[in-house]
Amino acid sequence: MKKPKKNVRVTLQEVADHAGVSTTTASLVVRNNPRISEATRNKVLASMEELGYVYDRVAANMRSQNSNIIGVIVTDIANKFISEFLIGVQNTLEDFGYTVLLGTTFDSVEKQQKLISTMVEHRVDGLILNPASRSVGKTVKQLNNLKIPLVLANRELTNVHADYVGIDYPEGTYKAISHLISKGHEKIAFLGGVKNSSTWTERMEGYRTAHENANLTLDESLVIDSEPTDKGGEEAALKMLDLPEIPTAIFCFSDLIAFGVMKVLTQKGIVIGRDIDIVGFDNIPEAEIYHPPLTTVSSYPKSIGNQAAKLLHSKVKRESEEMHRVILKPQLVIRETSK
Predict the structure, then answer these.
(1) Which residues, listed in sequence order, are joined to residue 250 by a DSSP beta bridge?
(2) Does 282 lie in the same domain as 197?
(3) Does a structural domain hold residue 96?
(4) Which Gene Ontology terms cover its molecular function (predicted)?
(5) How many domains does the chain have?
(6) Positive or negative CA dihedral for 175, 176, 182, 188?
(7) pLDDT at residue 67, as a whole number
(8) Helix (H), strand (E) at residue 25
(9) Residue 72 maps to a domain
(10) In this structure, are 309 and 207 located in the same domain?
(11) Whole-structure pTM over 0.90, yes or no?
(12) What is the mean pLDDT of each run of 10 residues along the chain (339 residues)?
């Protein structure tokens, strides 16, 4: 058979004729159906390559009413916690045969709202959302009006009717503060994070409970919020150093915040682990190799991503109509910054 003319899309019928199989068989090969023998599969794939066949996914989606595309929206892929979370999401979704459409909000509510609309326009089968810190009522309404499965990850939004996967932030923070109290610390700062976001509020719950259970008075002046970045950590540390009395220990909203805090304190000649103890949150890979290695709370971002992807898949396939809230248990990893 002659090759089709250039600039003319090769059809599946032409591939089938070239390979000497039926169109149904060629279609099953395209869809990776396990019933097709390896020999037949290789023959059809060879014809596709020789003819330059490109699968018309748009047409297939219109026939099946499914896109096999999952939208994933996160705050900042430069954040190691988020990149680890994405590895868990992507690996699991790919195992299920989905293509991932990724969007980054840089923690902007406006960008988030536009990305959600764009994902819907691209007919994604479902959406995994790591919400922006300051998500508001308009976002809640937008999400509740979605006609596709939705799973929130890492940060819950009040009044959004969606499944959720995250870590037990109150317990993780409680473990961190209790560890510092067991070392004799009574003045423990809480630095970083966007005040009143769900992740900040839940950490604050653990921070407060640990103080209450140890019969310690919580000093509100030691709670200093900031953007959840290393730069935010630097700014929070400088504000802390302006206080009349500097605390003997610091709990940081995240490891990124902790890195910013440690940078400022080191520049000021304060020896971390001797003059002041520090605990972070997330246990990103850099925490172990930072100088000094950071005590932190493991929040298992890959596992959260994996669970979120599995949960969304079950919703897309309509395997479960119930709402699920999956909360993973944190673990305190003690290193040099508070040994």
Answers:
(1) 189, 278
(2) yes
(3) yes
(4) DNA-binding transcription factor activity; transcription cis-regulatory region binding
(5) 3
(6) negative
(7) 66
(8) helix 23-30
(9) yes
(10) no
(11) no
(12) 55 90 86 83 89 64 64 93 95 93 94 93 93 88 91 92 95 98 97 93 97 96 95 98 96 97 97 97 94 96 96 90 92 95
Same domain membership, residue 109 and residue 42: no
Instruction: Please check whether residues 187 and 267 belong to one and the same domain.
Output: yes
pLDDT, residue 5, reads 47
Distance separating alpha carbons of residues 19 and 3, to the nearest angstrom: 13
Structure tokens at 278: 């520090």
> Where in the sequence is the domain holding 26, given as residue range(s)?
12-55
- The type of residue at 82 is I
- 272-278 long-range CB contacts below 8 Å, 24 or more apart? 272/337, 273/336, 273/337, 273/338, 273/339, 276/246, 276/247, 276/248, 276/249, 276/250, 277/180, 277/183, 277/185, 277/248, 277/249, 277/250, 277/337, 277/338, 278/249, 278/250, 278/252, 278/337, 278/338
Q: Specify whether 316 is located in the same domain as 282.
A: no
